Amino acid sequence: MDSIASTRAAALAAAMSNPVRRHGSAKRNKASFRQALVNFNRLPKYLRDNEYIVGYYRPGHWSLRQIIGSLFRLHNETFNIWSHLLGFAFFVVLTVITVVCSERLAAEADAQQVTRWPLYVFFGGAMTCLLASSVCHLFGCCSQHVASIIWRFDYVGIAVLIVTSYFPPVYYGFLCLPFWQKFYLWSASLFGAATVVVSLMEVFQTIHFRPVRAVIFSGLGLFGVVPVVHQWAVHNHIPLFQEALIYDLLMGATYLIGAAVYATRIPERWKPGTFDLAFHSHNLFHLCVVIAAYIHYEATIVFIRWRDADQCPMA
Fold first, then answer.
1. Which of 76, 170, 194, 224 is the most exposed place for a label (fewest CB within 10 A)?
2. Distance between CA atoms of 296 and 94, rounded to whole angstroms?
3. Using one digit for the tens of pLDDT, what is the confidence trace for 229-283?
């Protein structure tokens, strides 16, 4: 009996000490992770992108398990990963809510509603961009061969978002002008396809092409000025169009600010090392992408309200 009692007492003592041990182990793991991070000058050349971000880099030799584990650790890509991962989740929820509300409104509406597929194309583009970005920033510290492939899809995702953003305003804005509707949609799609092709080229990933990347994507976005001016000439007297236009101009300004910050590497170039973990240029660019995408959603809702109330005779 004494032996059994002693065994139980020892087991109870071990169980009571486990939380402390686990807590101590977690602290050691956290410290070990911090020690495994390296500075910019210790990175392999293929991972060097921004010399103004001095520390907290994951080295290029980690295993897949270590990289996945870094999703829940603090390093200089944590903000980039989670800003777009949470943005992806937000747009998933927004899509579900929109689908449910659209079906309910369609059942209650007296008149036929305008089609919603351009909005869902945009949702698909936004979610593709945000998820691809998160995955790329998580796994971008792999071997040189894998990293060179992964990072291309980050730029592909951005191009997809920009192109799919054209669909709602062009489709609804030129609903009564089918020739121009098709012309602008095809033009944007071809421009976007060309951008995707360029993005998949290996040379496009090099540090020397940073300004070129910003110019190409800004050009893809600025192409939207042409259909906007055209729509203004046709619909400037319509209040709902004016409201949607204000939203889209704000969206465009947000994208351009993000691109300018990304290209100039502000604010980290002013004080290297200060913004390693948060609010460096790539972080701010990510925030601009999410904010601009949501602003465009609001613009699209206004376009839909307009066309639900004022469809074309043959539409």
1. 194
2. 13
3. 999 999 999 999 999 999 999 998 998 899 899 989 999 999 999 999 999 999 9
Amino acid, res. 148: S
Residue 11 tokens, joined: 């087991």
Please state whether 279 falls in left (phi above 0), alpha (psi between -120 and 50) or beta: left
Q: For the chain, which residues make up each domain, given as ranges?
A: 63-309
Q: What is the 3-state secondary structure (H, E, C) of 206-229?
A: CHHHHHHHHHHHHHHHHCCHHHHH
Residue 23 annotated as lining a ligand binding site: no
What is the tens place of the pLDDT at every residue in 169-217? 999 999 999 999 999 999 999 999 988 888 888 777 777 776 777 788 7
Question: Is the separation of the CB atoms in 20 and 37 below 8 Å?
Answer: no
Q: Are 293 and 126 in contact (CB under 8 A)?
A: yes
Token digits of residue 79: 């903000």
CB 265 within 8 A of CB 53: no
Residues in the chain: 315
Residue 212 CB burial class (10 angstroms; 0-12, 13-18, ≥19): middle
Interacting residues of 5 by C-beta distance below 8 A, sequence separation 6+: none
- Does the annotation place 282 within a ligand binding site? yes
The predicted pLDDT at position 98 comes to 93
